Structure formats: C-alpha cells, structure tokens
C-alpha cells in the first residue's frame, strides 16, 4: 500500500483516539542532526557500546566516556527540535490523554514544548555525583574531564547505561499509559533495547492500535497496524 493511503487511514485512527501514547527513539532527532546508534554511521557502528555505555566501561575509563558525552552535549546544545518534535507538541494539545515516553536523552522534546516527558534513559543535561549521589542540571561545557562535584566526588551523566535500572517507576508508568491508550505511536526506534521495546508487544496484546514511523522495518513492523515508512519530520506533520 502506498504510504499516502496508509497515512490517511492512520490519520483517521488518530482522529478518533481519546488517549494517545508515544514512544520515541534516536530517529526522531536524526533530522535535527543528531546521530542514531545503530543506523547510518550511528554510534554503535563506530564505537564499542561496552566501553561507552556500561557502568563497567565508565569505571575502566571515565575520561573516555566523558569525552564521548561532552562531544554529544555540544552537538545536542546546538541542535534544534525538528518538525517531528513540534508535531508531537501539537498532538498533545489535541487529545484528552497524552503520554510521551522517550529513550532520548537530548532534551529536544522539552525544547519543542512537550510536557511531562517520561525519559526512560535519563537526561544528558543532568549530572550525578558518584559519592554524595546529588543530581543537578548542568549545561556548561566541562573543560576538565571527568568533571567533579563540589564534594570532590566524580560526576557522571545521569543517563541509563546497559545493565542499569531505568529511573524508578518510569517503565511502570509507561506500561500503564500504553496499555490504556487507544493508539500507540512508535517513532524512530530500532526497538532493539529492552525494556523500552517491550512496550510494543504490550500494546499489541492489549489491542491498542499501533502506528510505527520509521524509514526502516523493525522486528515489530509486521505486527503493527500501520507501518509508515519514512522520516518522522515528514511523516508526523503529515499525520496531523
Ligand atoms: C529514523 C530516522 C528518521 C533513522 N525518522 N526514524 C530483554 C531481552 C534482552 C536483553 C535485555 C532484556 N531486558 C534488558 C536487557 C538488557 C539490555 C538490552 O536491552 N539489551 C539489548 C541490546 C539486547 N537493557 C538494559 O540493560 C536496560 N536496563 C535494564 O533492562 O535494567 C534492568 C536489568 C538490569 C540488569 C540486567 C537485566 C535487567 C538499559 C538500557 C539502556 C540503553 N542505553 C542507551 C544509552 C543511553 C544514553 C545515551 O544516549 O548515550 O540508550 S543504548 C542506546 O539504545 C540509547 C537509546 O536510547 C537506545 C535505543 O536506541 P534507539 O533510540 O532505538 O536508536 P537506534 O539507533 O537503535 O535506532 C534508530 C531508529 O531510527 C532506526 O530504526 C532508524 O531506522 C530510525 N531512523 N532516521 C525516523 N529521520
Ligand atoms: Zn558529590
């Protein structure tokens, strides 16, 4: 089926929904110039995730991990929300119950104006002290890496690495919202990382209409109600 016909049908489903849940991944920020992880020269194609996105990698070489994150912080600070982020803000205004769940740490949904973003993998703009445990927002460029807390302890980015627990209650809240939704939009994620990807089979089992937006197929594409193939900065505005 042509994407345009698919979009028209998906739009009807969206129009009748009273409750919408959305899961976004790195692809939603691709058109803001932020690389993804697993596609088109994404980070995990040129870097070992074991070195850069695990607590063990950070313990081995905190400076290397911080160099990776500081470089991304600078790129993300310069990035602007794209038409896909903005379309989700518009969608939130139109529907009674709206839940935005993201795997992204870049803060572009906040910058676009989305409210109550459930950030499953944390936030690159928040740092946490390994000694006193304090967390604070910090957008400054760290000149000395790894940066230190005022207590002298080492800081880390408050993001979720492999093998770490997600922020307390975040996946439970997401699961509840997805299972109760009329429509679940899955945007720009390879759906390879759990428990985030597990929200898709939960929606399918709960008979929630699932609309996937991605230029590439994923393991779940054959099971969703609509697979809208294309970039989210084009498809999301077209869907509204
Ligand atoms: C476009 C586009 C455009 C391109 N428009 N689209 C069950 C089964 C097996 C394993 C596990 C399991 N449960 C847990 C695990 C272990 C592990 C895991 O999932 N491993 C798998 C890889 C197998 N999960 C965890 O460890 C998680 N913690 C956990 O489960 O805790 C409990 C526990 C602890 C200990 C033991 C067991 C359980 C934590 C996961 C943390 C993930 N962290 C990262 C880094 C975060 C910080 C950072 O950003 O640096 O999160 S990894 C990275 O992947 C990042 C992303 O959020 C995440 C997902 O990636 P995403 O967003 O899908 O990006 P891509 O690149 O994969 O895909 C982009 C997509 O966009 C593609 O499809 C493109 O086609 C598309 N695209 N351009 C729209 N213009
Ligand atoms: Zn401290």
Task: Please name the defining characteristics of this protein.
single chain, 240 residues, alpha/beta, Rossmann fold, SIR2/SIRT2 'Small Domain', 2 domains, six-stranded parallel beta sheet, three-stranded antiparallel beta sheet, 10 helices, 19% strand, elongated, binds ligand BJW, binds zinc ion
Describe the protein's architecture and organization.
This protein has 240 residues and is an alpha/beta fold. The protein has two domains: 2-34 and 81-121 and 167-239, 3-Layer(aba) Sandwich (Rossmann fold); 39-78 and 131-159, SIR2/SIRT2 'Small Domain' (2-Layer Sandwich). The chain has ten helices and nine strands. The chain has helices at residues 3-16, 43-46, 49-52, 55-60, 62-78, 83-94, 108-112, 170-180, 199-205, 232-239; strands spanning 19-24, 97-102, 117-119, 122-129, 135-137, 155-159, 183-187, 209-214, 226-229. The strands form two sheets. It has a six-stranded parallel sheet with strand order 3-2-1-7-8-9, sandwiched between helices. The radius of gyration is 18 Å and the shape is elongated. It starts with a helix and ends with a helix. The relative contact order is 0.20. Zinc ion is lined by residues 129, 131-132, 134, 149, 151, 153. Ligand BJW is lined by residues 25-27, 30-31, 36-39, 42, 53, 103, 105, 121, 159-165, 188-190, 192-195, 214-216, 218, 231-232.
């Amino acid at each position: 089926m042509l994407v345009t016909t698919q979009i028209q049908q998906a739009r009807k489903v969206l129009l009748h929904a009273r409750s919408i849940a959305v899961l976004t991944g790195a692809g939603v920020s691709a058109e803001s110039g932020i690389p993804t992880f697993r596609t088109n020269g994404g980070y995990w194609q040129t870097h070992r995730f074991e070195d850069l996105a695990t607590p063990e990698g950070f313990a081995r070489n905190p400076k290397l991990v911080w160099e990776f994150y500081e470089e991304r912080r600078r790129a993300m600070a310069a990035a602007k929300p794209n038409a896909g982020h903005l379309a989700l803000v518009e969608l939130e205004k139109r529907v009674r119950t709206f839940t935005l769940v993201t795997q992204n740490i870049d803060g572009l949904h906040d910058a676009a104006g989305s409210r109550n973003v459930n950030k499953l993998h944390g936030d690159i703009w928040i740092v946490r002290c390994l000694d006193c445990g304090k967390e604070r927002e910090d957008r400054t460029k760290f000149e000395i890496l790894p940066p230190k807390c005022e207590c002298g302890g080492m800081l880390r980015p408050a993001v979720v690495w492999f093998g770490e627990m997600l922020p307390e209650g975040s996946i439970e809240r997401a699961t509840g919202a997805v299972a109760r939704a009329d429509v679940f939009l899955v945007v720009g994620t390879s759906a390879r990382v759990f428990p985030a990807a597990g929200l898709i089979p939960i929606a399918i089992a709960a008979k929630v209409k699932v609309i996937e937006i991605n230029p590439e197929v994923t393991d779940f594409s054959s099971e969703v109600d609509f697979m809208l193939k294309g970039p989210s900065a084009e498809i999301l505005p077209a869907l509204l």
